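Design job #97: recover the sequence.
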């Protein structure tokens, strides 16, 4: 996800400096290519970090922010109406670059994915980081009590 977000943001930022239609088209293509999986990854990571009762609300807020971002484009276009089209690309790509840096330092790998890959220690480390961020000792209690098995077993297909 980090790589896709940085890829998309850098391609959008580079569009500001395109000198012809072919360069512009290629950069827009690469920006769209990087954008393809970001929304899905963000929703999955958000939903994994909250309980079942909050998943609907968290998903709603994520999609609301996405919609508000699209709705802000006419306002940005109006503010930059007396300048070049390059400024609108600059104004819309800089938040993505800042966001990708923010995610690099504060987003964790999916604990479910790590567990399914057999990287159990890393999965527990991620869960501990998340539980310490919410000041919840529940994970520590569950893991130390021995109620959770960290062994990954393959499910047989019938």
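Job complete. Output follows.
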């Amino acid at each position: 996800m980090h790589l896709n977000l940085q890829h998309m943001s850098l391609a959008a930022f580079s569009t500001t400096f395109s000198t012809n239609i072919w360069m512009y088209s290629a950069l827009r293509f690469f920006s769209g290519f990087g954008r393809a999986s970001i929304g899905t990854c963000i929703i999955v990571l958000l939903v994994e970090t909250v309980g079942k009762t909050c998943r609907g609300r968290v998903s709603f807020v994520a999609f609301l922010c996405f919609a508000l971002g699209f709705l802000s484009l006419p306002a940005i276009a109006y503010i930059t109406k007396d300048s070049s089209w390059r400024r609108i690309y600059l104004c819309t790509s800089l938040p993505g670059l800042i966001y990708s840096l923010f995610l690099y330092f504060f987003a964790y790998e999916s604990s479910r994915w790590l567990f399914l890959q057999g990287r159990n220690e890393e999965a527990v480390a991620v869960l501990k980081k998340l539980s310490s961020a919410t000041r919840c000792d529940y994970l520590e209690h569950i893991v130390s009590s021995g109620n959770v098995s960290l062994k990954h077993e393959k499910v047989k297909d019938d």
